[in-house]
Amino acid sequence: MDKRQLGQTGIEVSPIGLGTVKFGRNESVKYPQSYELPSDEHLSNLLTQAKALGINTLDTAPSYGSSEERLGRLLYNQRNEWVIIDKAGEEFKDNKSSYIFTADHFERSLERSLKRLNTDYIDVLLIHSDGHDIEILSNNSLIKKLHHFKEQGLVKAIGASTKTIEGGIMALQLLDVVMATYNTENTNEKPVLNYAAEYNKGLILKKVMASGHTSSPSKSLEFAFSHPGVTSAIIGTININHLKENVKTTTQYLSLIQRE
């Protein structure tokens, strides 16, 4: 897969990014089927296959259980070969989520993530919104702290994983990147994608497969990439065959629309 520019960040990402919720957490998840956490050997093979398929983008978060720590081990001596998208704001403990959107917490969260991931920088750091997007993004001290992370070189780009139209657009106005929901069952946030396309901002999709509830993964991917504002789509899977099929569908579709 050819890499794509993530808005104006200078970061090149693969059209398909690998979501890593299932690397570290199987409690209180929205997937239709339960699953056991895979072994390090399985995940190492999955990452090797992902790289061979042209994937260079990984999505993780502190709320994804042991995902960050496992990636820190699995990516030993490979850090520069991957684009890591991480988050801050949501914590998962005792089988439930809590949210903290203060500048101090984000500083502590980033410190912890860097240590867990065994790295000295994050490529893209996103606010992990609880849905109160406008309230969070109106916190000037938090936004200032995110920009400070960039100035320090701790992160290359900043953004937000939002849940509303207004929040997504506001995040694109204040920051570099937005992660938005857009799939065949839910197109509510399409205005966010339109804004990203118009102003050349980084737009990453989440829930492309409706958390595993879609009936046609190939149609879901084609639908996602039919919008010109979309840079990359995060697909959470620990199934190598599913990953191969998703990459094949996406590559074929992108080749088709490029020829047109």
Tell me what the structure shows:
It is a single chain. The protein has 260 residues and is an alpha/beta fold. It has a single domain (4-259), classed as Alpha-Beta Barrel (TIM Barrel). It is 41% helix and 21% strand. It has 10 helices and 12 strands. It has helices at 21-24, 40-52, 67-74, 103-117, 133-137, 140-152, 165-174, 190-199, 217-225, 240-259; strands spanning 4-5, 12-13, 16-19, 57-59, 83-88, 90-93, 96-99, 122-128, 155-161, 177-181, 202-206, 232-236. The chain has an 8-stranded parallel β-barrel with strand order 3-4-5-8-9-10-11-12, surrounded by 6 helices. A two-stranded antiparallel sheet has the order 1-2. α3 (67-74) runs parallel beside α4 (103-117), α4 packs parallel to α6 and α7 (165-174) runs parallel beside α8. It is globular and about 45 Å long.
CATH class call: Alpha Beta
Strand content: 15-25%
DSSP strand count: 12
Instruction: Supply the helix-strand structural class.
Output: alpha/beta
The rounded distance between the terminal residues' Cα atoms is 18 Å
* Largest β-sheet summary: 8 strands, parallel, barrel
Number of helices: 10
CATH superfamily: NADP-dependent oxidoreductase domain
The CATH topology turns out to be TIM Barrel
List the uncertain runs: none
Order of helices and strands: EEEHHEHEEEHEHHEHEHEHEH
